[in-house]
Design a protein that fits this description.
Blueprint: H1 2-18, E1 25-29, H2 36-52, E2 56-60, H3 67-74, E3 82-86, H4 89-96, E4 108-123, H5 132-142, E5 149-152, H6 157-169, E6 174-177, H7 181-189, E7 195-199, H8 200-208, E8 213-217, H9 232-235, E9 243-251, H10 256-269, H11 273-281, E10 285-289, H12 291-312
Parallel strand pairs: 1-2, 1-3, 5-6
Antiparallel strand pairs: 3-9, 4-7, 4-8, 4-9, 4-10
Helix pairs in contact: 2-10, 4-12, 6-12
Length: 318
Amino acid sequence: MTRIFAVLALSLAASAAAQYPQRPIRLIVPAAPGGGTDITARSIVPAIADNLGQPMVIENRGGAGGVVGTEVVAKSAPDGYTLLMVYISHATNPTLVTKLPYDTEGDFTPITLISHEPTVLVTHPSNPAKSLVEFIAWVKQESRGGKLSYATDPGSAGFLAAELFLQRIGAKVQYIPYKGSGPAAADVVAGHVPYMWSVISIVTPYAKGGRLKALATADKQRAPALPDVPTAGEAGLPDFAVSGWYGLVAPARTPRNVVDAVYAATIKALKSEAVLSRLAASGSLPIGAGPDEFAAHVKREIARWNRVLTAAGVQPTN
């Protein structure tokens, strides 16, 4: 009798999955409102919901660099009705947090890598450097006294770009941690901290308004949001690319047809001019990678940033 009930339960679950979605979907954004992850989610989610034929309700669950919201989804039912918008901290937390309450690769089913957002080096307009080459020379000179610092949100794409940058040029600079890239940028604008690396969306308004000086973007091509700013490669630092990225995952063991349905709805959304316009406005560039490609991307990112953070001597938290 027990076996009959078990078979019946599996049959009902399969039937429900085949008709997915039948009710509203909850999307956990493991970050505070107003940041790059939240902006990306709100730029594309309405179109995904329209394509699926059901509402998608965004729920911000920020805290601990994304760990709080991510844990919620890891422990949710694998039925497609609780999804997670991940960003680059999804790949850095295995290095930065010693006791993660979930397995980054084992507890999630990748759906799609939606987009990426290049980082950009900005400094206060009073900085004497007029190019990346001059800025590198300035950093090397100023860092000799051990008093030079930069602003950052630890674990963010800007933090990773800053640490990789220092390793590439052979300099040591102390970082000043902030609870977000927005407050960090505000202090660079105010002249309290000399420079930072940041995703483009955070600092573009300051750069366009002349309140920050943008010296280089860390991407292979120039950023549409800052077309006059050279890439690091153009400016003298070849093969230097660091971007924040955003994607969708579901709890592990989510049925493949559910994953395929969300992926197809996302790809269709990424073909919408309205969605592309909203992403471009925030500096985010569409990707639309599939589940298997996204899984491989996460694996590569975990390994890459583990090497960089370990070399930087960053101590993980409990």
